[in-house]
Amino acid sequence: MDIRTGQDTIRFFRQLFVARAGVAPRRTKEWSIPFSGHARLSERIGEAVRKTHSYYLEQQHRDGYWWYELESNVTITAEYLMLLHFLGLQDREKDVKIANHLLQNQRSDGTWAIHWGGTGDLSTSIEAYFALKLSGLSPEEPTMRRARDFILSQGGVEASRVFTRIFLALFGEFDWRAIPSIPVEINLFPAWFPLSIYDFSSWARSTIVPLSLVLDLKPVRPLPPGKGVRELYREPHTIPPITTQKVSPFSWKGFFVLLDRIVKAMEEKPVRPLRERARKVTEKWILEHQEPTGDWGGIQPAMVNSVLALVTRGYDLSHDRVKRGLKALENFTIERKGELVLQSCISPVWDTALTTLALLSSGMDREHPVLVRACTWLAAKQIFRRGDWSIKRPDLPPGGWAFEFENSWYPDVDDTAVVLMFLNQYAGKNFVSARNLEKGLRWILGMQGRDGGWGAFDADNDMRILNYLPFGDLEAMIDPGTPDLTGRVLELLGQVKYPVESDAVRKAIRFLRKRQEKDGSWWGRWGVNYLYGTSSVLSGLHSIGEDMASAYVRRAVEWIKNIQNADGGWGECCESYNDPALKCRGMSTPSQTAWALLALIAAGEGTGAEAVKGIQYLLGQQRENGTWPEECFTGTGFPKYFMIRYHNYRNCFPLMALGKFRSLLSEKGLVR
Fold first, then answer.
1. What is the distance between the alpha carbons of residues 178 and 117, in angstroms, rounded to a whole number?
2. pTM exceeds 0.90, yes or no
């Protein structure tokens, strides 16, 4: 944080909790609703809101939180089965339930996709096939034959991604030499050294560190006859290349492929003086980063690979650290109708914060016991220890929130911002400490990048060449600032009346203007896709007091209005990350429609014809129990490669949009 920003912050905190007045209303152009019947529309919205309120009242856990499924693709569950088999912990009942889950998600052509409605994905299909075979399914089953035909048509196992190769190598079904190296010595590099582990994103770091130990030791658990997958190879007796892509020797990727060959040659030398020391340092890092609950990083890859690393290092299955790690994974599982599914992550803090904001926005009394319980629970989840983020921000005091129940090493900006939007409504109450709210806000401000944007878990984590590493085939090795997170922080800063003339705000707006697309939209890193990014940015700009009549804002507004579907909703497919021609094309969904409506409301277009049609779409789609149907994946883990269906998005965001629209009608005097 520079000196001027620090002075702005000091002035701000002197005033913030002395008195809390509402944000001053901003003048926006008045729009008239192009139809009669304001009162009837308001009544319909009121009925819809009451239904959803009832739903959420029933869903709240007694401790005060909400927690909904975080759905991804089947590789997460398939790898869980592989882990258990590798450890010798296979269980017939679990095998059957996991197999049922995999078969339930198989497409009619025999493939598996990375999201609902997607096309078959090679690596996902390989992992599902292998897990089914381990579970006892015959390769001659029609479903297996169809999957095998697809896999071979797409290049076979040789064309698979890195993580698929690693899981096959654990069972001797892939050659370790054809997997990119991560020399364990990398964990000895100091934080300032190029290619230190702290140059990687938090999710890559928490996965790569334990994997480096696994790749160093290269364990193999041979399979019984008939369980292997050699039939998925096009050339089973040939060692595949490190990367299947054609690589120019004069590119960064070509440089890293050459570097990998050099590293492999060094790994085969009989003397590596720092190897054992690196192993011990890596083991210590893994142990230090395990939560008391057994979790690592709050994500499946970090947890699975940390268990693998400890066992490979010689830890017995009865060791407390291993047992807790396996228990943490089990806590991520969901059982239903004969199926067992492992979630890639769990989102109770995120679900609770979004739900409370939706309930408040839709008119629930601030003193309602449901909200007070949620407030108390969220306030207690604040993290006051230093995590990996402090490597680049050593002077910044802690104070953020994480996504999960327990993840003290990795609080994130997005969760912290949304939690503070809610908790600041209760500043001065005895169950919310004003000092702790100040710490949370200071932490967010301190995490701003030098470019003015905010990333998720780290600051200035933007060494883009890391995505060219052979190991980085998911293009997710870094965590740079993004428009959606930057918009979210501005929305918070506006709500707490942070000085709009501060350097932090000016730099953020400058960042957003540089990142705007030519058509007026903004890319969405954590939600699909331009609809999510644009909604977050416009909400943030409005909140902080930016002139919503500015030319660059109007371009975004017109873009949103022009992409509305004929049914009144908005939608965007996951493939838009791969193909720009598919940008904002897709069937209407409740969550994405709500994002568009929130953007229009923020931009002063909340009672225009497009917004009214969007509201009518939401009202028409609502079920009798107050929920909305939505099969599409509208959340993003890694753009292009890992998509998420948050089961709460389809309900919390429509509720938020309906509530804000109804408040707008009241503000304009269109209804009593």
1. 32
2. yes
